[in-house]
Specification:
There is one protein chain. The strands form ten sheets. Strands 1, 2, 3, 4, 5, 6 and 7 form a seven-stranded mixed beta sheet that branches. This protein is mainly β. The radius of gyration is 27 Å and the shape is globular. 13% of the residues lie in helices and 39% in strands.
């Protein structure tokens, strides 16, 4: 077995850095060959780098042809013309490069025992499907691509290869970028971001196609779209003319849609195109004819990146208190719960309902103004409660059968002594796992789940599936956010970012920001003895609590705010 190792992935960072300085808006793979010209004719980022890969070299070995073919995958403009030169005529016609982008850290060509057949072995970093849905993989994840070659006019050409491209991670991050496309929560009240990776120069068309194809797997059932199933683009492009993105849709579905649905379609596209500087407005078209969208005031634009109130709930002298503007004050008309030894308080973002655990974190309580505390459930252990904008109180712990169970209760407005609506969910992907923290997102369509199995902790985002009456009924198979630590708690910072940490009263703690838009964790400044974390609106409103008091993140450090209150939490 013969192995040829690629050295380009080790040098590409330095080369790209130099070329980005020299070429401003174009870059070239470090390869001999002619340099051509490129004009930006598509809607997207006009300053996005353009690569000019080399054409096949005379006398190149099969191994070199395979390596060069995949390096030519960076030359995406005009449908990968250089990469197709490495293929036989028949394979060039059938190869579909946009079906999948495989992103690797290292690569090597391995000759198999069969004549003219090879394997391209990769250390897989990401896999991006045709709709831009990216899956991240830890180092050491292997994938092999089978490649067959034959000679054409005395030169080796690839006669059989799977659809898709494979490019180095560093090149991928130059060519591609993360962009949110937006869907709605089931009430059409909130916009939910769904991050995809697209080639930076072709984003408007890619975004539109992905939007019509529907949400990522982890959001299916948790969000909705204004576009009905089966609606398609009727043109191969989405031109942007004088700032107007002209979206030409299948006429039947567009004309069958109600006035409200067309307004929601336009709003959904406008939100999705917010990241595109050349798009000012959106035009819906059928057979290239403009379809006017009437705004009769019945459809409100969705709330984007829902914010939380500036106040926090906390504990002080063993009881619930308000923590706001660096002052502690009583909660209006809330009876004392000091006898229950409250911990992990949470406050509704839409009502005056409060939830908390007892002293040993085995019982969940709720309390409303003018009423005594109400016990909602008891377990051998429970996660701190989190309250959705629909006023469902969420927690997790062992179920009656010993398995992991996520439970939700809706006590708001229920008279004392009456049964509280409740739901218990045991998704198969949580089987055998111990949940350390469960936090509902601010629009209520997703949840942050930190869980552990066999000593390994994972941070994941799941979608919350609801019944027609709004009651939760399931959690979707999640996506994983990679952390460099083993966190035991986390909070939402905004609609696309969470902060996590492994709290410790005796050691140095390094919180991290994990983003749906990036696979790389961002470490915050370390701090001694952080045991509790909260976050308001944005990364500058992150708070940590230690024995020395409550600290706020300021710049690249932490600044003491107040000593006394503990376990602060923003509504949610």
């Amino acid at each position: 077995m013969t192995i040829t190792r690629s050295k380009r992935t080790r040098s590409v960072v330095a080369v790209l850095a130099l070329l980005m300085v020299l070429l401003a808006s174009c870059a070239q793979i470090p390869r001999s060959g002619p340099v051509g010209k490129s004009e930006d004719e598509s809607a997207g980022n006009p300053n996005a780098p353009v690569f000019f890969p080399a054409a096949p070299r005379a006398g190149a070995s099969p191994e070199a042809v395979i390596e060069d073919f995949y390096m030519a995958g960076s030359g995406y403009e005009d449908d990968y013309p250089v990469a197709r030169q490495y293929l036989t005529q028949a394979q060039s016609v059938t190869w579909k490069p946009d079906e999948r982008a495989i992103v690797f850290r290292e690569a090597q060509v391995v000759k198999t025992a069969t004549e003219n057949e090879y394997l391209y072995e990769l250390d897989l970093a990401y896999s991006v499907d045709a709709d831009g849905v990216a899956t991240q993989y830890p180092p050491g994840t292997k994938e092999t691509i089978p490649v067959s070659l034959e000679q054409v006019d005395g030169e080796w050409r690839i006669s059989k290869v799977p659809d898709g491209t494979a490019i180095p991670e560093e090149t991928f991050k130059v060519i591609y970028g993360p962009f949110p496309i937006y869907f709605y929560d089931p009430t059409f009240t909130y916009a939910v971001p769904d991050y995809r990776w697209f080639i930076k120069k072709n984003t408007v068309k890619s975004m539109t196609s992905a939007l019509l194809a529907g949400p990522s797997p982890y959001l299916r059932g948790a969000v909705v779209s204004a576009f009905p199933s089966g609606m398609k683009l009727t043109r191969e492009s989405v031109p942007v003319v004088s700032g107007a993105a002209q979206v030409d849709l299948s006429a039947k579905e567009l004309f069958n849609a109600s006035t409200e649905d067309r307004q929601r379609m336009q709003n959904q596209l406008a939100l999705t195109f917010r990241s595109q500087p050349d798009v000012i407005n959106v035009q819906l078209r059928a057979d290239q004819d403009l379809v006017r969208v009437e705004d009769n005031g019945s459809v409100l634009p969705p709330v984007v990146d829902k914010s939380v109130p500036a106040r926090q709930i906390a504990l002080n002298n063993g009881d619930l208190v308000r923590y706001e503007n660096n002052r502690v004050s009583p909660l209006p008309d809330i009876q004392s719960v000091a006898a229950l030894g409250p911990h992990s308080p949470a406050e509704s973002p839409v009502s005056q309902t409060i939830a908390f655990l007892n002293g040993d974190k085995t019982a969940l309580y709720s309390i409303e103004p003018g009423q005594p505390a109400r016990q909602l459930t008891t377990r051998s252990t429970l996660t701190g409660p989190s309250i959705s904008p629909h006023d469902w109180i969420w927690t997790a712990g062992p179920g009656a059968g010993g398995g992991t169970e996520v439970v939700a209760f809706k006590p708001t407005g229920v008279a004392p002594g009456m049964a509280v609506p409740s739901v218990a969910i045991s998704p198969s992907w949580l089987s055998g796992r111990t949940i350390k923290d469960f936090r509902v997102s601010r629009e209520g369509a997703r949840a942050l789940v930190i869980s552990e199995l066999n000593g390994k902790t994972v941070v994941q985002i799941t979608g919350i599936v609801r019944n027609s009456d709004g009651a939760p009924k399931d959690l979707t198979a999640p996506i994983t956010l990679f952390s460099s630590t083993s966190p035991d708690q986390g909070v939402w910072v905004n609609g696309s970012t969470v902060a996590v940490m492994a709290g410790s009263s005796t050691g140095t703690v390094v919180p991290e920001l994990l983003s749906l838009a990036s696979g790389e964790p961002q470490q915050l400044a370390p701090w001694e003895g952080l045991t509790y974390l909260s976050a308001g609106n944005g990364s500058e409103q992150i708070y940590g609590q230690s024995a020395a008091g409550i600290f706020q993140r300021v710049g690249n450090g932490w600044e003491l705010q107040l000593k006394g209150p503990t376990e602060p939490a923003f509504p949610g």
